[in-house]
Amino acid sequence: MTKTIRLTMAQALARFLTRQMTMVDGRKVPLFAGVWAIFGHGNVAGMGEALYGVKNELPTYRAHNEQAMAHAAIAFAKATRRRRMMACTTSIGPGALNMVTAAAVAHVDRLPVLFLPGDIFANRKPDPVLQQVENFGDGTASANDCFRPVSRYFDRIARPEQLIPALSRAMEVLTDPADCGPVTLALCQDVQAEAFDYPESFFVETVWTQRRIRPDENELARAVARLRDAKKPVIISGGGVLYSEASAALAGFAERHGIPVTETQAGKSSLPFLNPLNMGAIGVTGTSASNRLAEEADMILAVGTRLQDFTTGSWALFKNEGKTIIGLNTQVFDAGKHRALPLIADARVGLEELSTNLGSYKAPATWTKSAQDGFKAWMKEADAVTAATNALPSDAQVIGAVQRALGRDISLLCAAGGLPGELHKLWQASTPSSYHLEYGFSCMGYEIAGGLGMKMAQPEREVVVMVGDGSYLMLNSEVATSVMMGIKLTIVLLDNRGYGCITRLQKATGGARFNNLLADSVHETLPEIDFAGHARSMGALAEKVNSLADLETALKAAKANTRTTVIVIDTDPWVSTEAGGHWWDVAVPEVSVRKEVDAARKKYETAVKQQRIGD
Question: Sorted alphabetically, which keywords does the UniProt record give (predicted)?
């Protein structure tokens, strides 16, 4: 006879999470590192009581904003290379919907997080309850249906026994290298409190290990044959290299075969900056070294990348008509993009088997040397734009100051605005997963909450968050959370008084200055925001510095601080690094009364002719 244990649905869920384990560096550790929770009437009685019961095994963390706590969970998963993860629970209505943006971040970036929003009453007796969204034509719908398009798996738990198959499916998705992404289990609030006799076997400890998909022999043979013919091969290293822990395999492959490596935003840090075959960033925010190689390449080995438009220069970067793209990826959807030859495999295993089968193949020495010479030339340009100045500094010059003050052996996090482009080109990362950019969804407000999650994943490292004033104003509440939890961050806040990045894009597309910088928006009083004072009000140490030299001094001092430190510096909204980079497809109006827009449209029409879609 099957042994059972009577628990509420919420209690069963909490207990199940405590029984999921994984292996990290040879040690068995909990797969779920904790639960972020903001309680309300839709989850405090059910999930709140259940989480209290397992608080010594599964810690619950209190945040100040639902979107922010989800960002922290996502960053934690990324910083642990998808080896561990977190869950997030909210009440129904606005609390739940605050997480939808974060769910999209996880969906785009292929990162595991378990969303547990409260939902409407399954029995419908008290309908409509507080915060319930009523659909006039669909009695089954709730606000949580908004999670469907941004979840890899979605389910609504309307009976307590439904939890058993739902959690089984959830775990398969969260731990799968190809389908990995957010899972949403919407928890009807009455059902959270309902009891069921769950089989004890449901709570048996399970150890989840990384699945390493080996390549199909036919796809491997085809890839090897094409690579052997390559005269100008180049590698694009994406986030999948880091998730696979394939940095050593990538370095060995590149060195053995003399193939230069370029990095996407998600893949940056997969090779140390000092590796002689690391050409740095590729694409719209790429180095001149990487982009020249991409333009000339006859073979592009795209490893663990989804080839988004910033990587491919909106598919205008690869100009060699005889090129071949090989998509080495666990996900078929990504591997075959733009008629690439798919090689479905784990990045580490795929590179190892490719290398073995390639034997003594080596790219022509002239190609490899040309690549390295190009990188040396790029570094002269990079050093020039990051050098100190007495003028109002650019983002690049602030990046240079941070690097000079703290060196390469830190972990850096950013997300949106102009900083990601400059960091992609200019930051010098030394350790895998020490460079953390959320640039798949480019979500403003991710930065500080993401830094919190990164520090929780990498407590031994100095974590530096770089954020613009626009993102800081959108979502800064987790400064208080970091202080409350005793998790120290160093936050460098660049104040260019508005949305400088989009102002530059507005100008580049012929637009007039309008509604981006504070000075160009409708206002009665131009605000002078005391960011340092605001950060201090949340418990952080904070100061505003007036020069790059003072910034370097403050950063060195911040290393000794035990509390989150915010350092504010004014920057120039108009200056960005012109060296490197590539055209990006941002559609310009065909018709306008402004001659600047008409001129921009002519340039745009010329540029789009370089796009090569379908070949």
Answer: Hydrolase
What pairing do the DSSP bridges indicate for beta strands 114-119 and 153-157? unpaired
- Could you report the per-residue pLDDT of 426-465, keeping only the tens digit for each? 999 999 999 999 999 999 999 999 999 999 999 999 999 9
d(CA 412, CA 400): 13
Overall residue count recorded for the chain in this entry: 615
Going by C-beta distance under 8 Å and a sequence separation of 6 or more, which residues neighbour residue 229? 299
Residue 424 near residue 265, CB atoms below 8 Å: yes
Torsion sign over Cα 398, 401, 406, 408: positive
C-alpha 262/C-alpha 246 separation (Å) is: 15
What are the backbone dihedrals phi and psi of residue 61, each rounded to the nearest 5 degrees, phi first?
-110, 135
The 3 state secondary structure assigned to 553-606 is HHHHHHCCCCCCEEEEEECCCCCCCCCCCCCCCCCCCCCCCCHHHHHHHHHHHH
Pairing state between β 27-30 and 20-24: antiparallel
Instruction: Give the E-state strand segments of 275-376 in sequence order.
Output: 278-281, 299-303, 324-329, 341-344
State the Cα torsion 310-312-315-321 to the nearest 10°: 160
Q: Between vectors from CA 565 to CA 564 and to CA 570, what angle results, nearest 5°?
A: 145
Give counts: helices (H), strands (E), the chain. 24, 23
Spell out the long-range contacts of 17-22 with Cβ–Cβ below 8 A and sequence spacing 24 or more: 17/54, 17/58, 17/87, 17/114, 18/54, 18/57, 18/58, 19/203, 19/204, 19/205, 19/206, 20/171, 20/205, 20/206, 20/208, 21/205, 21/206, 21/207, 21/208, 22/83, 22/84, 22/207, 22/208, 22/209
Whole-angstrom distance, CA of residue 129 vs CA of residue 126:
6
pLDDT per position as a tens digit, 192-229: 999 999 999 999 999 999 999 999 999 999 999 999 99
Q: Say how far residue 366 (Cα) sits from the centre of its chain.
A: 36
Domains of the chain (ranges; CATH) run 4-208 (3.40.50.970), 217-377 (3.40.50.1220), 387-570 (3.40.50.970)
Separation CA 489–CA 483 (nearest Å): 9
CA distance 14 to 569: 44
CA angle 489, 492, 497 (to 5 degrees): 140
Count the Cβ atoms, other than its own, within 10 Å of residue 431.
16
Burial (CB < 10 A; 0-12, 13-18, 19+), residue 373, is exposed
The Cα 517–Cα 19 span in angstroms is 51
On the question of a cis peptide bond just before residue 128, with omega within 30 degrees of 0, the verdict is: yes
Q: What span, in angstroms and rounded, lies between the C-alpha atoms of 199 and 1? A: 10
Instruction: List b or e across 265-301, with b for residues whose CB sees 16 or more CB atoms inside 10 angstroms.
Output: bbbbbbbbbebebbbbbbbbbbbbbbbbbbbbbbbbb
Residue numbers in the chain where pLDDT is lower than 70: 614-615
338 class by beta-carbon count within 10 Å (0-12 exposed, 13-18 middle, 19+ buried) = middle
* pTM (two decimals): 0.97
**How does DSSP classify residue 27?**
E
- Give the three-state DSSP class for 539: coil
| C-beta separation of 440 from 108 below 8 A | yes
